[in-house]
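Example record

The entry below shows one chain as it appears in the dataset: sequence first, then structure tokens.
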Amino acid sequence: MQNDGSVSPARAFLRNKWVRLILIIDSIIVIAVIGIIIWNATKTATINFSVAPIDAKIQLNGQGEYYNGSYKLHPGNYTVSISHDGLVTKTFDLELKSGYDTTITAFLTGENNNLEFYTLKDNFDSFQKLAQIAGKGNNSTTDQDTSAESFIQNFQQAYALWQSELPIRYAVHGEYGYLVKDVTIRASYDCTLYLCIEALMRGTEDKNLISSLLEEKGFNVEEYEIKYKIY
């Protein structure tokens, strides 16, 4: 058969520069996907994070953003950094081995091991996590930090009292039934701190009276936020 110089539709289609570009891009994508699959398949080490606060940011070798949970990683040496606004950052160096699980359990505090962050109402979930990982007799933190043990115990006792002992009513009447002092102390949720007390005071502005009444009931006044309402 004589070649008349014509080109088949298939060849003409493949010679189109846009078609060739699309095929090249598709090939690159396929190669990249295969590479990612192979790369992920080599992640044979597991790291588990259990940290407080619950929204603390965790980085590995200064990269990424991890939170509480388990992650598959490549075996090797890592520097773990745990940070949160207003709290002191903690770092750990560790080696992850293929086929092994490694757990990082830690909690953050403020300067000089200040734990006031965990008494804030909005952070109560973080306090519960703190109590889970660093309670007295149950300290399993990676760095063996025991600074939270007494804090957790005192806070839990205060919380139990806060739930069970309030309200407190105190009244003193005059000789003819005239109201001299009338104080009602009750739990309140209208505060920044989770342990919040509202003191309704009639006929007196003596805030020391409130402290005395609370201490008689076993409350450590310093652990509570007290809102005074004087009528």
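Notes for this example: Helices lie at 9-15, 17-41, 124-134, 149-164, 207-216. The two ends are 112 Å apart (CA to CA).
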